[in-house]
Amino acid sequence: MSLQVAAFARAIAIPEHPAEDGRSFTAATLEAAHDFYRANGYVVLRGLVPEALCDAVRAGFETVRHSRIPILRQRNMSYERNTFNADGFLDNPIFNVQDLPTRRCMAFKSAALDLLTTSGVMEAVCTMLGVSRSKIVQSMFFEAPAGTWAHQDTYYQDSAAELGRCVAGWFALEDIDAGAGRFYVCPGSHRGTLLRNAGEHDFATGHDRYKEAIADIVSHESTDLTAPFLAKGDVLFWNSLTIHGSFPAARPGVSRSSLTAHYLSESDDMLQFHTRIREQEFRLWNGVTVGQLHNQDSWRSHIVREAASRFPGPYLVARKLALRMLMSRRESSSRGRQAAQ
Ligand SMILES: O=C(O)CCC(=O)C(=O)O
């Protein structure tokens, strides 16, 4: 029996078992998986990651669970210490595992990067992108249900070569309970409305309006929605134009240990906020290029982290101002281009 939840103006059935799910594929059927991915904007690959790698990431996290270092967070891009929900699961998901300080987070960071760069994963990513080499540009780690708002990744980051040429993976590190804030996607939405990071929806001043507009699309444009069952080692890949998010907790006492990672073709630059090419530092991990944005092994990022965690208010204000400046420079240069035409 699937779990029934109400969201986006409808009743949604969240499968408790793979038998209740739609189609899925394996490493042996990558070409068919690619066709499904192109048609639907997502695909599930069962058993792509060896269970031992999933266990190593979770064991690695135990070495940082009680650490007091401030870490950058997916929810608000602030540096915070680990916080936990009532069931003791990490409540503030980690942004960019590859940026963690190596010495203090070695076991967790290396296990996560090993998993995200394993040859089976890289082959699947390259097949989805239709390229021979790809790189990681972003990653996240979740444990408690997150209730992430519906969005298209392109609004935050995408390929500068072409929107939609970024593929992301949701890596289940345990069997994900239907009530643990299941990840969902809207099949076919990669061919639907593309909400630009501009004007009334720009990130600096209109992020809340953007979230409402995407939720409206899911609620009112007869958008399909699926929240597949994911067992330990399964991976769901989705396109940067596909609307997706995750549900809040629907049951107590369950976790959703998982990694996500966003991949581009090796030769593509990362486009941020539909605005600028975001420079990254690159390193190699198992022969795979991994982009870093806030490398905590560098003294410069370390100083920013210390300042941001000691003075979170002024740090957030400064970040907001910098974003506003970035967006308004973009608006005025696009007005300038229109005037010149
Ligand atoms: O699992 C989640 O809650 C959200 C993950 C996500 O949206 C992402 O990695 O882009």
* Content-based structural category: alpha+beta
Tally the helices: what do you get? 7
Computed Rg: 19 Å
Q: How would you sum up the major sheet?
A: 6 strands, antiparallel
Strand content: 15-25%
Global mean pLDDT: 93
Order of helices and strands: EEHEHEEEHHEEEEHEEEEEEEHH
Gap between N and C termini, in Å? 60 Å
Order the strands across the largest sheet as they lie in space. Answer: 3-11-9-13-7-6
Annotation, overall tally of beta strands: 17
The CATH superfamily is q2cbj1_9rhob like domain
- The CATH architecture would be Sandwich
The domain tally reads: 1
Q: Any idea of the CATH topology?
A: Jelly Rolls
Shape: globular
Helical percentage: 25-40%
Low-confidence blocks of residues:
none
Named once each, the bound ligands are:
2-oxoglutaric acid
Description:
- There is one protein chain.
- The chain has 341 residues and is an alpha+beta fold.
- The protein has one domain (24-333): Jelly Rolls (Sandwich), CATH 2.60.120.
- It has seven helices and 17 strands.
- A six-stranded antiparallel sheet has the order 3-11-9-13-7-6. A three-stranded antiparallel sheet has the order 8-14-15, with no helix packed on it.
- Helix 2 (51-62) runs antiparallel to helix 3 (102-116) and helix 6 packs across helix 7.
- It is globular, with a radius of gyration of 19 Å.
- It starts with a strand and ends with a helix.
- The site of 2-oxoglutaric acid has 10 residues, from strand 7 and strand 12.
